[in-house]
Amino acid sequence: MVEGSESPTSPLAHGKDYDLVVIGGGSGGLAAAKEAARHGAKVACFDFVKPSEKGTTWGLGGTCVNVGCIPKKLMHQAGILGESFSDANAFGWTVEEKQKHDWGKMVSGIQDHIGSLNFGYRTALREKKVDYKNEYCSFVDANTVKGVNKRGVEKQYTFDKCIIAVGGRPSYLDAPGARELCITSDDVFSLENPPGKTLCVGASYISLETAGFLNALGYDTSVVVRSVFLRGFDTEIAAQIVGHMERHGTRMIRDTTPQKFEKTEDGKIKVEFKNTMFGNKFKEEFDTVVLAVGRDAVTEGLNLPAAGVEFNPKNGKIPCVDEQTNVPHIYAIGDVLDTRQELTPVAIKAGVRLAHRIYGDDGKPKLKMNYDLVPTTVFTPLEYGCVGMSEELAKETYGEENIESYLSYFKPLEWTVNHSAHDNGTMHREDNACFAKVIVNKADSERVVGLHYLGPNAGEVTQGYAVAMKMNMTKQDLDDTVGIHPTVSEQFTTMTITRSSGEDPQSKGC
How far apart are CA 481 and CA 490, in angstroms? Predict the structure, then answer.
C-alpha cells in the first residue's frame, strides 16, 4: 500500500465529489482512471489540449496516440515501404523505378485511424463509468481542482486523491522567429501539405526519426546538431545510425546551432546558422523547420503551489517516491515524473499499478513500478532496440575491467538478393549494416547488463530479451539457447567475438 493511502471503505465516505481526480487523458492517465474505476472508485479524468503555436490540436489519448508513437511509427512504416520497392524488384516483382508518394493521402489515413482511437478512449471511459471532462484543470487547494471548458465556463471539484498525468510538450529554441516560423512534433503528423525541403533541429531520437521517414518519403532532409547524437544511448550504435542515415541521403550539419529564423518573400524559412567550433555563420533556406530540442512538463498552468506539491523549477517535473509526491494523497505518473523514462508503456504500467495499490481489493499483490531494465526502440530507418545499459554506463557502473562486450555485424537474409545502388553509389542494402551487442559483467557470471540491436523490426526482436534480462540472463543462457534460423534474432545465441579479442565481428556468411 502506498504510504498515506487507504482503500475506500464506502463510496464517497470522505465527503468529496470524487474518490480520484486524474489530470491528463494520455496513456498513463487513462490507464490509472480505468483501473481505479474497475475497483469501485468514483473517478473524474480531465483532459484539455492547448493548441500548439501553429494551432494544431487533437482529441483524447495524449501525446503517444495523437502526436507521438502511433503516427510516428505509421510514417516510419510508409518510409520502409518506399525503401522496399527496390527489394521487390530484386525478388522479381515489376515495380516502377521512380515511385510517387501522396503525402495528403498518408496523413488522411493516419488521422482517420487516430480519430477512431480518440473515439474508442471516450467510449472506454464511459463504459468504465469514469467522468470524462474536457476542461483545463488546475489546483485550487490540496483537495480541490478547477476545470475551465472551451467556452470559459469554470467549475470546482473536490477530491480525496489525485493523480497528475499531464505529460509534456515540445520545447522551442530561444531564437528569433522560432515560435512563429517553426513546427514541432505536435504539428508534423497532421501537415496538410508536403513538408518539402526540411530541416530537423536537434540530436534527439524524435529529430532523427522524423528526418529518417521524411528522407525515405523523398524529401530533401537535413539535421542540425549542436553536440552529441542520441545522448544517453550507446554512442557506438548512435554513430552507426547517423552514418547509415548519411549514406542513405540525410544530411547532417554538425557542431552547429540555428541563430535566427526569417520568412522570405516567397514563403520559405531562411535559417542563420552558427558553427560552435569555429564561430562562422552561414544561411540556408528551407520549406519546413521541425524543432526537436527537448520536451517540457506541462505543469506551468497546474498551480502546483496551491496544492503544496513540490516540483523541479528547472524543468517543471515532479519528484516522487513510488509515484507519490510530497503531498501524501497526490501522485504523479508518466512523463511529468522527474528522472524517469518518458515512455508510454512506462506510464501505463505505473498508472495501473498505482491505482491498484490505492484501490485494489481483488486479493492480488499490490506491486510497485519497476523502472529498471525498461526496453525501448528508436524508429530510425535502421531501427535500434535496447535493454539495459549502454557500454559507457556499464563501464562507469561496474568498472571497465569488469565489462566485456560481444559484437556481431550482419546482413538480414531478406536483404541479400538486392544489389541495387542509390544515386550516390551506396548500396540500398549494405553488407554488415546491422549490429548486435551484448554487454556483460564478468564479475557477476557474465550477467547481461546491456543488450543492443540495430536492424529491422528492432522492437519485436528486443521485447523478449527484456523478459530474460529481468530474470538475470547470463551470456551462458544465450549460448544455451538454440536460435531460430534464418532470423536476425539468432545473432544473440551465436555471438563469440568480444571487443577485447580484437577480432573482426563482421559476418562473412549466413
Answer: 9
Q: How far is CA 392 from the centre of its chain?
A: 22
Ordered mean pLDDT values, 10 residues apiece, the chain (510 residues)? 42 88 98 97 97 96 97 98 92 86 98 98 97 98 98 98 97 97 98 98 98 97 97 98 97 98 97 95 98 96 98 95 98 96 97 97 93 98 98 98 98 92 81 96 98 98 98 98 97 97 83
Place of cell 573482426: 504
Q: Could you tell me which residues come within 8 angstroms of residue 254 by beta carbon, excluding any fewer than 6 positions away?
A: 225
Q: Are strands 144-148 and 154-164 parallel, antiparallel or unpaired?
A: antiparallel
Enumerate the β-bridge partners of residue 18.
159
Instruction: Give pairs for 340-346: CB < 8 Å, separation 24+.
Output: 340/371, 341/371, 341/374, 341/376, 342/168, 342/295, 343/374, 343/376, 344/27, 344/28, 344/64, 344/68, 344/69, 345/374, 346/371, 346/374
The pLDDT tens digits for 385-434 are 999 999 999 999 999 999 999 999 999 999 999 988 887 777 789 999 99
Q: Going by DSSP bridges, is the β-strand pair 295-297/18-23 parallel, antiparallel, or unpaired?
A: unpaired
Contact between 138 and 50 under an 8 Å Cβ cutoff? The reply is: no
The pLDDT of residue 509:
61
C-alpha cell at 313: 523549477
Task: Please state, in angstroms and rounded to a whole number, the distance separating the CA atoms of residues 435 and 286.
Answer: 34
CA–CA distances in Å: residue 250 to residues 198, 212, 227:
10, 7, 17
- What residue type is 331 in one-letter code? Y
Global pTM?
Answer: 0.94
Residue 267 per-residue DSSP state: S
CA-wise closest residue to 44 among 54, 36, 53, 55: 36
Per DSSP, 278 falls in state T
For cell 490509472, name the residue: 32
| Residue 13 confidence (pLDDT) | 83
Which of helix, strand or coil describes residue 192?
A: coil
260, 182 Cβ separation under 8 angstroms:
no
Rounded Cα–Cα distance for residues 370 and 471 (Å)? 13
The DSSP code for 136 is: E
**218 three-class SS:** coil
Spell out the residues 6+ positions from residue 405 whose beta carbon is closer than 8 angstroms to its own.
Answer: 391, 437, 438, 439, 440, 498, 499
288-291 and 198-201 strand pairing: parallel
Phi, psi for residue 438 in degrees, rounded to 5? -120, 120
Four-CA torsion 103, 106, 112, 114, nearest 10 degrees: -100
Mean pLDDT (the chain) is: 95
Helix axes 205-216, 69-83, angle to 10 degrees: 40
Q: 368 has which bridge partners?
A: none
Return the bridge partners of 20, or none: 43, 161
- Which domains, and CATH codes, for the chain? 18-170+296-359 (3.50.50.60), 178-293 (3.50.50.60), 383-493 (3.30.390.30)
The residues that bridge with 162 in the sheet, in sequence order, are 21, 330
Annotated catalytic residues are: 485
